[in-house]
Amino acid sequence: MPTQAFVPPAATVLPLMVRGRQPNTETADPAVTARLVDWFGRARTFIGSYTPADDTHLPDPDTSLSRTQLLSLAIGFTGCDTDQARDQRTYTVVYADPDSGKHNFQTLCVPYYAPASPLRFERDPAGPGCRIVWKPTGDVLAAPRFHAGIFGASSHYYSRVAPDLTELPTAAIISPYSTCAGGCVGCSRNEVGSWAPPPRDYIARHVAGLAADYDRRGWDRAELISVNITTGCQPDEARELAMMLELIAAYRAAGFSNVAFFPFTYAIHSRAAMDQLREAGCLGFIGTLECVNDAERLRQWGRHKGAITFEQHLEKYRRAHAAGFEVVETDYVLGADSYPEMLRGVAELFGAGVAVVPNIKRNYSVAQLASNHADIWAMGMTYVADGFAACLATYAHGTIKRRAARASVDYLRRHGWPQVGLRGLPIRHT
Hints:
Layout: H1 30-49, H2 67-78, E1 81-82, E2 90-96, E3 103-109, E4 119-123, E5 130-134, E6 139-142, E7 145-149, E8 156-158, E9 171-174, H3 189-192, H4 202-217, E10 226-230, H5 237-253, E11 260-264, H6 271-280, E12 284-289, H7 294-306, H8 310-322, E13 327-334, H9 339-351, E14 355-360, H10 366-370, H11 374-379, H12 381-393, H13 400-414
Parallel strand pairs: 1-4, 9-10, 10-11, 12-13, 13-14
Antiparallel strand pairs: 2-3, 2-7, 4-5, 5-6, 8-9
């Protein structure tokens, strides 16, 4: 039976997860090793016998998981040891599915319990070659292609790539300040304490840098049709809205004339603010749902963000639909909810017209590892595969990725790839 999610008593001081929680030294706790060896060993067995769903009849082939994708998620959840320098703890690698040949980009983390992890991330001395090794036996589990270390990343990345992994000008995920572009050391900023006020000219610097990159690559700025704005640097709705509107105006002034915007925000809630975003050229609205269970969200994410209840999230997405957004999405990181609660929450979001974009938590500390619900430990990859299947079914509502993918196919066909289709595009952002 699934265990009940932890509900803190009234006297509990919240949040449990606090800033700057990482230790100064790494741990090789044998109890952590035993837990991860057991979990990942069962994951390998599950993945080996997993049969991907047949989506050949669907026009948009992004609603099923391959065995390689599941393996990349299991690696991301477990975390890797490595001999790489510890100034970087997050890497993006590209896996290739041996059955379909399709590529998917995925991140892996080097946690503070790295010596206890049964996985090791190895890089070739030169070139993009790398390996994920099962430390107990030395078996190579996967040999992906190294793409990037995220620490110190730029304020943008191009979210669509060609079949040969060449970046395309059609879509960008931007973070003018903070979050991953500020240097990713952990997916929960409440855990890692990565807050800092932005400089006054961060928007101008970001847009100028992106425009210069287009010019350097010889790209037409009019080819950019989709920008996903993710910042996390404004403390309230008024300042978040002002930042979004200033950013959109700066893009227009810089000659990005065909772009539609998709703001990712937890600070904007009111219909009035949503209407202003729509009028400024936003076609979609993206939120983030840390977990379905309200008590667990408060425990892990604190009062400022975690106090937004699941029902309040639903109401916000209903307002977004009423405001006329073509796409309404929420990101959902699996792991904090019980199995039934996860599936119930995804079903309710689907009923509210929301596309639920799933991912798996990267655990950087022992505290984050312990924050995962007992069901993911007990059920293993069944929890992950069923959660992803439920989320991917919500893509029937339409997603930002599908719009950008169609534009990317059009671009490629105009630039030397006449036979390319949606199935030929790598999965750049899960």
